[in-house]
């Protein structure tokens, strides 16, 4: 299946609704069953299989975000013109 920009944004918005998936301080963050249930809820809204949304797309989006955040952080500093 093809991931459109709208589907990616929908995935991100649904992912945000479940702190079990992204917040290590949340009470159920380390509970695999609760995480799986949250992923099932997320993919029911966007209409993709769990493994495709979780392993392929969300990890790719997070990897891209971390890379861009690191670039921005490294460009800030003394003598960088900012």
TrEMBL record:
It comes from the Eukaryota. InterPro entries: MADF-dom. Residues 10-82 form the MADF domain. This is MADF domain-containing protein.
């Amino acid at each position: 299946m093809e991931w459109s920009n709208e589907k990616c944004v929908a995935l991100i918005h649904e992912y945000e609704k479940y702190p079990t998936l992204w917040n290590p301080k949340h009470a159920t963050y380390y509970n695999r069953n609760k995480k799986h249930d949250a992923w099932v809820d997320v993919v029911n809204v966007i209409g993709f299989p769990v493994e495709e949304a979780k392993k392929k797309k969300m990890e790719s989006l997070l990897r891209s975000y971390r890379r861009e955040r690191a670039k921005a952080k490294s460009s800030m500093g003394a003598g960088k013109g900012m």
